[in-house]
Request: fold
Amino acid sequence: MPNLYITEQNSVLRKSGERLIVQKDDEILLDVKCRNVEAVLIFGNVQFTTQVVHELFQHGIEMAILTRTGKLVGQITSIATKNIELRLNQFEKYRDDNFKLLLSKQLVTGKINNSIDLIKQFSYNHPEIELEKDALKRAMGNVESAKSINELMGIEGIAAKNYFNAFGKMLLSDLNFTGRKKHPSTDPVNALLSLTYTMIFNEISTLLDGLGFDPYLSYYHSVDYGRASLASDLIEEFRAPIADRFILNILNNNVFGEEDFYPNPKDGAVYLKRESLKRYFAEYEEMINRNFTHPVTKENTSYRKCFRIQAESLAVCINDKGAYVSFKQE
Reply:
C-alpha cells in the first residue's frame, strides 16, 4: 500500500466514515479509503483532527509529522502492536558485546557490499568512466577482523569517503557534487540524498515500532536521546541499492534540475520547491513499490516489503531463532 503525503500548506486532514479527506478551504484535494494507506506523512502547516488519529489507530496506520522541508519531528503511533517479549530480548542483547559486534559486522558488510555492487553495475554500462573499487574491497576485508564497534565505524567511514568519490563520477547531470554534506545539505544532490535517507529512515522506524521493537535501542549506532537509533542501524544496508541508486536515476535522467531547488538563507541549506517536492514523492513511491525478485526468498517483492523482511529477520536473530543476513541487491 502507498504512503499518503500531505504537503499542501494550511490544508486539513479529516475523516468521513472510513475515508481520509484532505481539504483546503472549501475544496477537497484528496479522498481515499483508510485501508488503501500504509502510513500518513504530514509536512509543515497541515492540521488534522483527533477523529483522524482514532481512525488511523483502528487501522494500524502510523502518522509522521515532518517540517515543510522534510525533517522528521515525531510520530503518532498506536499501542496495539507492542511485543514485550521482543523488547525484553532486545534489551538483553544490548548488554551482549559479542552480539552487538557480530550484528554490526553484518550491517557494515551489507552496506559496503551494496556500495561495491552499485559501482560495478554503473561501470558495466559506462566502461569509459574509471571508478575506484579497490579501497572499498580493502575495507570489506578489514570488517571481519575488527575488534570493536569503534574500529568498525572507522572502517565504514573510510569506505564511505571512497564510495562518495565514485558516486560523484556516476552523476551525469550538470548538478555539482563535491562530496557528502549534511547538517546542512548545501547543494541539490546532497539535499536529495538527505531527503531520501530521511524517507527510508522514517519508514524503517515506523515499521520497527509497529513490530514491537524499541526503535531507540540500537546495536551499531550509539544510543542517543530522541533518536530512533535502531532505524539508523537497519538503514545502512539500504543506502546504496535504494536511496543512492534512486538519486542517480532521477538526476541522470534529468527529472530534477537546478531550477527545482531553493536556498534557505537562515541555515544555508538547499531544499526542493513545493511543486518539485510533490514530483519527488511520486518518483519515490514508484521506486519504493517497484516489484523485483527477492535475492533470498526468490519471491516477488518490493523495496518497501524488504524493510519488513529485514526487520523480521532482526527479530528472529534477537530471539535466538536464526542468524541475521544483510540485504543484498542482485
Observations:
- Residues 97-125 form the longest helix (29 residues).
- The domain at 4-76 is CATH 3.100.10.20 (Ribosomal Protein L15; Chain: K; domain 2).
- The chain is about 50% helix and 15% strand.
